[in-house]
Design a protein that fits this description.
With 322 residues, the protein is an alpha/beta fold. Helix content is 31%, strand content 27%.
Length: 322
């Protein structure tokens, strides 16, 4: 089977990219998606499962560290029981490529894995500031990628896109660099999967050549907290927008990512928040069992987040809580 690792920091657009990708792949291949969510409620898995895909969720941890044993068990089960043509791994937005390659490489799956491709999504809006603040971490991520996709290019000037491409190419000359919006990339643009080499060395010699101390980024993400809720009620869409917009201030903590799917009178809605891009609302054609939200940040004020979310309800049908 082929293994695609789709990485990218929180809010870079991994799930949307995967949704677009699998639409191209489904007629050709049998696919399993393994999703790792930072919190204990799966948003991405719920969205992807509605595309009639086989989805395996790993929550409440990171598959390159605390959930590594679970990743190993799930990949072995997928390879031996389901036997798909391709496995797409969507790690949490704080996972390191080096860590993932080391875990996958240590699983001794050579007879099952034909090739590994690392696809890195970059938020074009946030890249310049993020690279300046966490240069070593970002350059380590870029150096290990086979394909680098600059997303959200509709929100930045073309001159900025060109500068980002130059920066990426200086770090990794072998990678395919693409720019897009809404995570839309044609399958043929990404080339063929590279041969992984000896998987036992930690995903090929890429990991051995690029070992870095990741500035203070890894220390920072250990301070991240999550706020999660599920609810069977109906939400007011305008109130929800104001709720997500409020994450731009510090009244409820420093929110670095928020996402949710909600039942509203207008139908089911997907709502995303990233500080640099603000709130994005996307109508959904599918129905879900219940509304759910995941908020990631530092110094989160859980009582305020819970109280203000409750105010967005038009009617409640049994809140399940965190």
């Amino acid at each position: 089977m082929l293994v695609d690792i789709v990485n990218g920091f929180l809010g870079s657009g991994k799930t949307t990219f995967i949704q677009n990708l699998v639409k191209q792949l489904v007629p050709l291949e049998r696919i399993v998606i393994l999703v790792n969510e930072f919190g204990d409620i799966g948003i991405d898995g719920a969205l992807l499962a509605k595309d009639d895909l086989e989805v395996v969720e790993l929550t409440s941890g990171c598959i390159c560290c605390s959930l590594a044993p679970d990743l190993g068990r799930q990949l072995l089960k997928i390879a031996t029981k389901i036997k798909p043509d391709r496995v797409i791994i969507e790690p949490t937005g704080v996972a390191t490529i080096q860590g993932l390659l080391s875990v996958v490489g240590g699983l001794r799956l050579e007879k099952y894995v034909e090739a590994i491709k690392v696809i890195l999504l970059i938020d074009g809006v946030e890249f310049t500031d993020f690279h300046a603040g966490y240069q070593t971490f970002m350059e380590s991520q870029i150096s290990l990628a086979d394909v680098v996709i600059i997303n959200k290019c509709d929100l930045i000037p073309s001159a900025v896109v060109r500068e980002i491409r130059k920066t990426i190419s200086k770090i990794n000359q072998r990678a395919i660099v693409l720019d897009t919006k809404y995570g839309q990339v044609a399958l043929e643009q990404m080339g063929t999967p590279p041969v992984p080499g000896d998987l036992n060395d930690g995903g090929g010699d890429r990991c051995l050549r690029h070992h870095h101390h990741h500035d203070d980024f890894e220390k920072k993400i250990t301070t991240y907290q999550t706020f999660t809720r599920k609810d069977h009620g109906i939400f007011d869409l305008n109130r929800l927008k104001k709720y997500f917009d409020s994450f731009g201030s510090l009244s409820q903590g420093q929110v670095v990512r928020a996402k949710g799917i909600f039942r509203c009178p207008e139908g089911w809605q997907r709502i995303d928040f990233v500080p640099a891009s603000g709130t994005i609302i996307t109508p959904l054609a599918e129905n879900f069992d219940q509304s759910r939200v995941l908020i990631i940040g530092q110094n989160l004020v859980h009582s305020n987040l819970a109280e203000n979310l409750q105010k967005c309800l038009l009617s409640s049908a049994g809140k399940t809580g965190e």
